Amino acid sequence: MKDVTILTTNTCPYCKMAKDFMTQNKIHFIEKDVNMDAQARYEMTSRNITGVPAFIIGKDVVVGLDKAKILELVDHRIVKCLNCNTSVRVPTKEGKINARCPKCKSAI
Ligand SMILES: [Zn+2]
Predict the structure, then answer these.
(1) Pairwise CA distance, residues 91 & 98, whole Å
(2) What is the DSSP code string of 25-66?
(3) How far apart are the CA of 99 and the centre of ligand 1, in A?
(4) Which of 53, 68, 75, 95 is the most exposed place for a label (fewest CB within 10 A)?
(5) pLDDT-above-90 percentage for the chain
(6) CA of 81 to the centre of ligand 1 (A)
(7) Alpha-carbon distance 56 to 5, whole Å?
(8) Distance from residue 20's CA to the centre of ligand 1 (Å)
């Protein structure tokens, strides 16, 4: 599964919208604030990213909240196990989710 990182700043309203969008769509992501995080700033300049929010999805970069593009690139969803309530990141293939809970081993 691809890792998803969002480059943000805490003053940008679109970054908040971007995070809400990810949460609503059950996408696991790591947030890096480019004003606080030198590593994130380096990542931004080295990839020629010109603005935030920027989404790094596997090897792809999406600048701006391009919802269709993001949903196309992301290959997982967060699913809660109905049995033990653990949040599990599972791969999505053709809209189907096939996985087992790592904790209680029941099908998700
Ligand atoms: Zn479980």
Answers:
(1) 8
(2) TT---EEEETTT-HHHHHHHHHTT--SSSEEEETTEEEES--
(3) 11
(4) 95
(5) 85
(6) 5
(7) 5
(8) 26
Cα 90 to ligand 1 centroid, rounded to whole Å: 13
87-93 and 96-97 as β-strands: parallel, antiparallel, unpaired? antiparallel
Give the C-alpha separation, 38 to 19, whole Å.
Answer: 21
Q: Please tell me the distance between residue 80's alpha carbon and the centre of ligand 1 in angstroms.
A: 8
**DSSP 8-state class, residue 95:** T
Of the candidates 36, 32, 2, 6, which has an alpha carbon nearest to the alpha carbon of residue 20?
A: 6
- Give the model confidence (pLDDT) of 83-99 as tens digits: 999 999 988 876 566 68
Q: How far is CA 70 from CA 11, 81, 91, in A?
A: 22, 25, 15
